[in-house]
Amino acid sequence: MSQPILEKNPTFWFYGSASIAYGIKNNAFSYLLLIYANQVLGLPGYLASLALAIAMIWDAVSDLLLGHWSDKTSSRLGRRHPFMYAAFFVLPITFYALFNPVIELNDDNTFYYVLVLALLIRTGTTLFEVPSTALLPDLETDYDRRNKWLALRHFFGWTGGNGIHMINFMFWVGAYGVASQTGYGIYGIAGALLIAAAILVSSFGTQKVASALPKPSEPFRFLAIKREIKQIFQSVKNKNFAALFFFGLTVGIAGGLGTALYLYNTTYFFGFSGKQISVTAIGVLISPVIAYWAAPYLGKLFGKKRAAIYAILVNIMLYPMPYILLLTGYWPELGSWTSLYIYSGFIVMEVICGIIGGVLLDSMMADVVEDSELKTARRSEGLFYAARGFAAKAISAGGIVGAGSIVSIVGLDGITSVDDVTQEIRMNLATLFLPIYCGLYLLGLVIVSKYRITREDHDAHLSQLNARKASERAERG
């Protein structure tokens, strides 16, 4: 029997569009925060790194607790939506305040301002992204169709983040300069408004379906926090979950080096202007469209794990090529349009591969939910996606930790013109971060190869759970 067409289901679109908020926030933390804190607020790279490291430690604790809490929340709004609505009052306001300082900053308070705002923004992101993503295992149980739900979510996340990135470098930061507060201020206002809209539209759009989902079998008990923490560790001991979590953490840090250094590399390594960077962003808009169709197709053809590994391997091979070609003299003139078009071609292909890998890995995480439920008799999708969210946030936090240190080591602190960048600085920059980047990705692929859930395993898990539930109903009846 044929299944309903997902594109005709409004919930499909409301679920997917939620990631616009995460895409915008991630764009800011991954690409802008380091250079903004360093060149506009005057915070040395290592101090910006320290602020984000502290925020990441907070994430490690708060993400897991909140995800577990949402798994066990019982309300007329459903398990997830109370947290999603709470995010509306935290994330947009703090995003605005980061790029439009609401107090006068000086040498004594800038570090603490960035730290507090980073903590609040990460908390707001957790409140929305983790419960929202965790709706999927209840909304869709089919092994292959889960890929399409997540392909749409990644499409909106990339389109939202890259879309505002394109406009930002065409009209705001790119127009006023990466060292000017004016462009960042406009970006902060626009980003906050779009984040607020995404939270409200997706939350209201999925509310009716979420309210009708089964309630948790037991509540979260603050007074029995030791018991709750014990349950968290019981769930995360799942070996398939561990493979995905440690993969995400490893490649998240690697990817963060690339994203946090992106503006340094495009502006100072390759010599592109703000307008040229926006052109690359225009080209990248095609990547989520291609990946939306390619990820489900490849996942069905090769299986989720194998297709994800293939896509990420291609990404690893493509990433260092422009840097190597430039350093060896086989690259067009710095800052030329020919250089830009070649560079953009590499970026588009890398993003396509990255999205395909991300979609399939997220879908693999959804399949862990039923695997875990068989062993623990609890639904732990919020907890699992919280842990996945923590690993993803390492893209920005871990990236800034490493990239901030690299900026200081190679001598980019205080440089505001491409004319000041020597070939020695370029060589040191590339040889310092590229081996780390590629090495961490390869290590991550070794880790994720330990994941074992196949399509047949997933179908067997669903059959066993259905049989268990039928037996429980028969006993009650």
Q: Which features does this protein show?
A:
mainly alpha; Growth Hormone, Chain: A; 477 residues; globular
Describe the structure.
The mean pLDDT is 89. The protein contains 21 helices and no strands. It has a single domain (12-210, 227-466), classed as MFS general substrate transporter like domains (Growth Hormone, Chain: A). 78% of the residues lie in helices and 0% in strands. The chain has helices at residues 10-17, 19-39, 45-71, 81-88, 91-99, 110-133, 136-139, 145-171, 173-176, 181-211, 225-236, 239-260, 262-269, 274-284, 286-302, 304-318, 321-327, 337-376, 381-410, 423-448, 455-476. The longest helix is centred in the C-terminal third of the chain and has 40 residues, at 337-376. With 477 residues, the chain is an all-alpha fold. It is globular and about 80 Å long. The two termini are 31 Å apart.
Give the helices and strands, then pairings:
Layout: H1 10-17, H2 19-39, H3 45-71, H4 81-88, H5 91-99, H6 110-133, H7 136-139, H8 145-171, H9 173-176, H10 181-211, H11 225-236, H12 239-260, H13 262-269, H14 274-284, H15 286-302, H16 304-318, H17 321-327, H18 337-376, H19 381-410, H20 423-448, H21 455-476
Helix pairs in contact: 1-8, 1-10, 2-6, 2-8, 2-10, 2-19, 3-6, 3-19, 4-6, 4-10, 5-6, 5-10, 6-19, 8-14, 8-15, 8-18, 12-19, 12-20, 14-18, 15-16, 15-18, 16-18, 16-20, 18-19, 18-21, 19-20
